[in-house]
Specification:
Shape: globular
Number of strands: 6
Strand order of the largest sheet: 2-1-6-5-4-3
Low-confidence stretches: none
Structural class: alpha+beta
CATH class: Alpha Beta
Order of helices and strands: HHEEHEEEE
Mean pLDDT: 97
Length: 107
């Protein structure tokens, strides 16, 4: 499966537990929605990613990716130290040029 560079980089940053690089794949005013909370801007996204990564030691394995225009849906197998691991989740993305402007995680 061929992934856009942005998505490939996001997955690699997550698997390397590099929250700084992870946040750099988002626009300055991007939003993330996960587990009933939302985060805005790179600083909040970095802090959210760092906190969840430290807590759950998450690793992502892409299963499928579909993109239509600026909207994409990435299906990933997420493993970590959380109940029910591994779990399949959907990352609903909105892309702006080569960055992510919105991410909603479901599953």
């Amino acid at each position: 499966m061929k992934l856009p560079n942005t998505i490939e980089g996001l997955i690699q940053a997550q698997n390397n537990q590099d929250s700084t690089t992870f946040a750099e794949y988002f626009t300055a005013d991007a939003t993330v929605a996960d587990e009933g909370s939302s985060y805005s801007g790179r600083d909040e996204i970095k802090a959210w990613n760092q906190q969840t990564t430290e807590k759950y030691q998450m690793q992502l394995k892409p299963i499928d990716f579909n993109q239509t225009g600026s909207k994409g849906e990435l299906t990933v197998e997420v493993t970590g130290t959380f109940p029910g691991s591994p779990s399949v989740m959907q990352y609903h993305l909105e892309l702006e040029d080569t960055l992510i402007s919105s991410l909603k995680i479901t599953g």
